[in-house]
Write a structure and sequence with these properties.
- The chain has a two-stranded antiparallel sheet.
- It folds into 2 domains: 165 residues, no CATH class; 174 residues, no CATH class.
- It is mainly α.
- The protein contains 13 helices and 12 strands.
- Helix 3 runs parallel beside helix 5, helix 4 crosses helix 5 and helix 10 runs antiparallel to helix 11.
């Protein structure tokens, strides 16, 4: 039995490929007024005293950080907005992988995605980034980036242990199937991988848009570092694909193409090439445009290429979403593509993080060319 055969039964992948979706889940307000309508929203929102105290601590720390960080950096509100958008995109896209319960009905903005956790992670990440940049300004960008990841991995482990201990955080069955069972401070040891990937994507997103916020002059690169650029693209796509592997699987592909569990060289390689080439084409033809306009073109061009291909893979049975993901599908489909609207919406979210990661590091490579 191949590694992919061993993996498939976990998801009960009998036809139809995309199980019937649960009714729409549009946030806590609708869930409270129509409790029988929204299966995916009907989780325990009752906050304990300890959880309310934890939420108050997060909000107080978030407010205090504005005053502290303003001493080291300008435009703090704008920087928080950028960081929060990056964190929210990640949380929204990966929400089927883990659940956040018992935070109180006031804490949710969509299903079990919580604004309190979003501002908490944003405050923690932004504070670390700004302080490291200030006190270790002489280090090179990649050295400071490594320091961000090292510090934040330890800090996030502590806070993850707290939310697990309080009964807030739970993992989807698909995630539980791939965990080893070993824990560190009550957190699965796999967090040593998941947390740095989360941080790398979100921090790169923040760093890219900080170039726009700070009006940084990004000069056109005369000599493109092809190998370095391609390696960055491979890392950005592969690491993210490996992380979301429990949420969606690649089936019925040649056995030799599977790198780890159901992560396929064919699927991942195709996304790498499409994204990398689209970025190159936009930079080649529209180098005179600023970073914002080019980013929109990256997202639009790659989205136009990726969505129909993803739809074909889904309809042909090569791309299968697990029950935790399909439980949140509304049942509405993109008519032309014949895929759930959630898939079409997820594509630009995924691309926004990955493209920002690739472009930020390409810009850094180019600045040293």
């Amino acid at each position: 039995m191949s590694i992919i055969d061993q993996h498939l039964p976990v998801f009960n992948l009998t036809p139809p490929l995309i199980p019937p979706a649960s009714p729409p889940c549009a946030g806590w307000a609708i869930a409270e007024t129509h409790p029988n309508l929204l299966r995916s929203c009907n989780f325990d929102k009752t906050a304990t005293g300890g959880i309310i105290g934890f939420e108050a601590f997060i909000i107080a720390g978030w407010i205090a950080s504005f005053f502290v960080l303003a001493r080291f950096k300008d435009k703090i509100w704008q920087r928080y907005a950028i960081m929060a958008i990056g964190v929210f995109i990640f949380e929204f896209f990966t929400s089927p992988m883990w659940n956040n319960h018992k935070l109180g009905p006031w804490a949710y903005v969509y299903q079990d995605v919580s604004w309190i956790l979003t501002i908490g992670w944003s405050a923690l990440i932004l504070t670390t980034v700004i302080l490291v940049d200030h006190f270790f300004a002489r280090l090179r960008e990649w050295q400071r980036f490594g320091l961000y990841l090292a510090l934040l991995t330890g800090l996030v482990f502590i806070f993850e242990a707290i939310v697990i201990g309080l009964g807030i955080r739970h993992y989807a069955p698909e995630v539980g199937e791939v965990l080893s069972g070993y824990h560190l401070f009550n957190v699965p040891v796999e967090g040593l991988y998941y947390i740095p990937v989360f941080m790398a994507l979100v921090i790169s997103f923040y760093k890219y848009w900080s170039l726009v916020l700070d009006d940084e002059l990004v000069a056109p690169v005369k000599r493109r570092r092809w190998l370095g650029s391609f390696i960055v693209a491979v890392l950005g796509v592969f690491l993210f694909e490996l992380m979301i592997e429990p949420m969606v699987i690649n089936a019925n592909l040649p056995g030799w193409s599977y790198i780890y569990r159901d992560v396929s060289l064919i699927m991942t390689g195709m996304w790498v090439v499409l994204i990398w080439l689209a970025i190159y084409v936009v930079d080649r033809l529209f180098i005179q445009l600023d970073l914002v306009k080019r980013f929109v073109l990256y997202l639009g061009l790659v989205g136009l290429l990726v969505l129909p291909i993803e739809a074909w893979f889904i309809n042909q049975g090569y791309r299968l979403y697990g029950p935790s993901a399909t439980a949140n599908f509304t049942g509405f489909q993109v008519i032309a593509a014949n895929v759930p609207v959630e898939v079409a919406f997820a594509v630009p979210l995924y691309l926004a993080l990955v493209i920002a990661f690739i472009r930020y590091w390409e810009i850094n490579l180019g600045s040293r060319a």
